[in-house]
C-alpha cells in the first residue's frame, strides 16, 4: 500500500472558525509584534553581519533561528494574507543572508561576525540548529511564493554541511548539540527532490551517540557560555542531548525536551522513508514513554526545569512545571510524522491536545504576549517572594506573559505553528482522505485517482457538531476516514439524517480502524456527513503514580483543558474542593474580545474567619459552598494576574 | 516581681526515660562520631594553625564554629558521663586555642592560617560567629568543670572584640554577617558577671541595620566565595541577614533562618535585661510571624531552600522543604528567652515541638547520621533522577542521613542541644517552680526562700501520665506551675487520687495562667501530683492558606508528629486517603533497638491494575481499603530508603 501523504497547508484555507480567527491574529498582530521585538533587540540587523566590538546587541549563536522561524511564519502568512510591509521585511532579510553567505555556503550571523575562526568547532554552538531553521524557512518561502531564491541559498549551505560533516569531515564534531538540521533536511529533500539531503539527515541520525569525541560538554574548553546558566552542569549529561545511546537504542524519552522531540521527529521521518523497522520501534518506544508517563494533561512534556528536560516517569510537578511551548509544538511534529507512518487517532489526539492546550497557551489572546515555560499551577505571591531571594526563572514559570525573551525560540515557533495549522487537518492514502482535525475550512485534495474538494462547517471546539461536504469529480472507491476523538465516549455520525455510527452500532460498509471511521463516499448522500461529538464537562484524573495530582481532577470539555483563575473566583482556589456530584453548566463569554466557552460548577471551601491566629489545629473545619468558573487553560493570564490551578481537589468517594 | 530564672542543665539529671536514653546515645555514639568526622576532615588539626599552602584540608572560615559546638556538647556530656578520652580530646583542643590565640586575643583558625591580613575585614566571613560559639563552649566548659581556663581565653577575645568593634572601631564593619556573638556575649556575661559583655551584645543589636557601609554584599569585592553557591545572589539581599531595618523595626520574620532565630534570641535577651519595651514588641511581632505563618507542623522554620531562608507567609512546600535542623534548635533558643520574659505555655509548646520533631529529626536513632535540611515529603526516585541532571541539594532534602557535611553546623548543634536538654525543663520565679517539659528526671531547685528537690516519673511522650514529687525543706508559699500542653484538650491533674483540675473544673487555690496550672505545694499531699494528658491520635489540619496541605492531615499523638514510610506501607502512600472515620490504634515497636509508639489506621488507595497504559482518563477509579502504619517523624530514614509523607490525603466531608 502506498505511503500516506500529508495535505500541504497551502491546500487548506481556513474560514472564520476558531483557527481562522487565530490566523487573523497571527497575521495582524503576532507577526509584527515578533518582528518589532527582534528588530529592537538587534536580531534583524545582526543578519547584515555589520556588528562590531563595542556596539550594542552583540549577536548570539542562536539568533538566526529566531529570525528564521519568524521568516517561516511570515512566509505561510503571506500566502493567505498578502502584506506589502511584511513581504518587504522578509525579502530584505533574505537579501542580508544572500549577501552575507560565505562563498562556501556557510551562514551564521554570530560566527561570521564574532568568531569566524570557530565555525563548526563546537557542537553546542547551535550552528546546525540555526541552519535547519533557515532551511525550513526557505522551504516555506518556496511553497508560499514559488521563488527559489531563498531555497537556493539554503541548498548551497546544505551542500557545504554535507561536505563538512559527511564527505570531508572537516567539522570538529559529528552530530550537533541541538537537533533540528535532521528534520529540516527532510523538508529540504521534499521541496527539492534532492536525495542527498535525505541521506545527510539519515547520516546525522546514524552517527549520533556513537562518537566518543562527540560529547556535548566539549563546551569550548569552558569559555562558553560566558556566564554559565544555572543548569550548565546539564551540559555534562549525555542524556541531555540524547547522546547516551545511538538513536535506535535510546531507552527512554529523556533530556532537553525540544532537542528530544525534534530528534524523534526526524527519526520517524527517516524510519518512514527508509522503511527502517529498528528505528521505527525506537520511535514507538519513545512515543509511548513520552505520552504515557511524562506528559502533562495539557500536553506539556518538559517537567524538569533544570535542563528544560523531560521529567522522570510520572514526575509532573504543577507549580514548578516547565512545559515549554516549543516542546509542545515539537511533540506535534513528532505525532504528525508517526501518523504518516501508520495512521492512528492516538497521534492526531496528541496534536489536538497541543493545538488547544499546551502549544496555544504560549500565546496571549491579542497575539503579542508569550509564555516560554507554562505553569500548571501559579501563585504570584510565591514568584514575587522568591524574586527577592532568587532568580525565579529557575523555580516557577512566569505568571505574566512577556513580549520577548532573551532566548526567544517560543514566540516565532507558535507563530509558524499557527500559520501552518492547516497541515494537521488532512492526509491522503491512495483514494482515502483522512480527516484528523475538525477545523472550519475548505481544501483541495489530490487523491490517487483524482481530486476532490472538502469543506468543514463547524464551531469546534466550542460546539459538538461538524458538517463535512465533499465535492468535485467523483472518484471510484474514494473514502473519508474521520477521526473519532479519544476524548469523546459517544460520537454519532449521520448521513442524510440517519445515524450510521454510534457507540453501539455501525452501518454496513463502514469500518472503524485505529480510531478512524472509514466511510465510502459512495454511501454519502450528496457527499454530506454530519458528525456529533457530545461535549459534557469531564473530570479527568491522572494515573495514581502522578503524586502531584492525587485526589484532584482536571476539567475538560471536548479537547479543551480548563483552569481556575482567581479573577473569576473570589475565594481560595487551592483550598476549593469540587463536590462529588456537581452541577456543571457552560456559557460563552469574551476575554479581550475573544469569545470562548467557560464552565461553571459547585464546590466547597473551608470557612476562614476562625483561622486568623492559628496555623495548625485538629481537623474538622466547616465548609461553605461556592460556585466556580473555569476558563480554557490557553486563555489564562490575559487579565489581572492572580492564582491559577489546572488540578482541582475533588470530594473523595472511597467506596467508588 | 523578680525576673524568671532558668534552672541550669547541671541541676537536672535525667533518668532512664526518653531523653535519658537520647543522652546515653549522645554520650556513647554522637560525641565520638562527630569528633571522628571533624578529625578526618581536618577541622580539629586546623585549630593547631599548622596548615600551610599545598596541604590537604584547607581550613574554612566557619570550621571553628563546628569544633566549638562539639566542645560545648562534650562539656555538657562530661558532667554526667565522665570519659577520659573525650575529656582529653576537649582539653587538647583548648590547648590549641590557648597556644594559637593572638596576643591581642583574636582567634580564628582560618584567618590566622590563611589570611592574617584580612582579620575583621569582611562581615560575611563568620569571625564573630565562630567567636560566639567558642564563647558558648567556654561557658559550658566552665559550668561543667569549674575551670576558668577556656573561659579566660574567650574573655580575652571578647575584650579584643569590644575594642575592635565598639571602643576603637578598627574593624572594617559594624555588625557581623552571621549573628551568634550577640547571644554568646549574654551567656559570657551570665558566667562572668562582667557587664561590658552584656553591653557589647546590646551594641551589636543596636547598630545592626543602621550602617550604610554594612552591607552583606561587601563580599570581599566578590573574591569570596571562590565559586558562588547557587544562592549567592542572596548575599545581595539585605533581608537575608536581617539588615533591612534596625532590630526594633524589623517588620517580619525573614531571611536566613538560623541567623534570624539567633538574632531574635539575643534581641529577647537584651529586651529582658534592659527592660527594652520596643525591642520586646519587635520580638513578639517576629515570634508571631514565625510561629503563626511560617512554621512547618514539625517546627521547621526555613521553608525556602535558596538562602536557607524563612519562607513567605503560608508558603510551606513539603517535598522541597528546607527546615534546617539548626533553625529548629535556634527557634527553641528564641522560645526559651521569650518564656523567661513572660512565662507562657505557647513558648514551651514550641520548644516541645522542636524537641520531639523538628530538631530531633536531624539525628539518626543510632546517633551517628544526620540531616541538615529535613523533608516533609520525600520521593527518592525524584532525588535520584535529578542527580543526573542537577545538584539535587538545591531542590530536595536528602533522603539518606549523612555522617558529616561540608557545612557541618547541624551535627554538633543537635549534640549540644540534646546534651543540655535539661535546661528546658524548669524555671523559677521567686518561690514558684515552672515545670515546662515532662521528662523523667530529678532536679535540685533553688527558690527565693529556700530549695527543693523535684522528681518526675514518666514515660512521656509515649505514655499519658506524669508523676511529680517534690521534697526538701518546706518553703512557705512555694508553688508549682505545670504546663498544660497546647496539644492536649482534656488534661486532668490529681492530688492523692482526687482530681483538682480538668477541662471543666478547677479546685480552690489553683490558678490557670498563660497555660500553666499553679498549685501551692501546701495543697499537695506529701508533695505529690499526678498529671494525665490523654493522647488520642489527632488529625491536624493546616490553615487553609497553606496550599500544599489543603485536603490533607498530619497525624499527631501527644507532642509527636508522625509520618508514613514506604517500608511499613506496601502501597502508594501519596495516593492513599485516610477514611473519614478511621479506627486508630497504636502499638510499641523498636526501630534499630529504639522503642517507640507507632500508629495504625485505615485508608483507601486507587486500584492500579487497569492504569498501566493510561496517563489521564475520566475520573471514577475504584478504591481498595488498606491499613497503614505511621512512625514518629523523628524516626524516619533509619531503615531502607523509600517514600515518606507527613501530610496525608483525608476523605473529604464537605458538609462538615
UniProtKB/TrEMBL annotation, chains A, B:
Residue ranges occupied by any Non-reducing end beta-L-arabinofuranosidase-like GH127 C-terminal domain in the UniProt entry: 540-649
SUPFAM superfamilies associated with the record: Six-hairpin glycosidases
Key words of the record: Hydrolase
Stretches assigned to the Non-reducing end beta-L-arabinofuranosidase-like GH127 middle domain: 432-535
Domain of life according to the entry: Bacteria
Hydrolase listed as a keyword: yes
InterPro entries for this protein: 6-hairpin_glycosidase_sf, Beta-AFase-like, Beta-AFase-like_GH127_C, Beta-AFase-like_GH127_cat, Beta-AFase-like_GH127_middle
Residues of the Non-reducing end beta-L-arabinofuranosidase-like GH127 catalytic domain: 11-422
A Pfam family per the record: Glyco_hydro127C
A single GO molecular function term of this UniProt record: hydrolase activity
This protein's name: Glycoside hydrolase family 127 protein
Naturally occurring in which organism (per UniProt): Paenibacillus lignilyticus
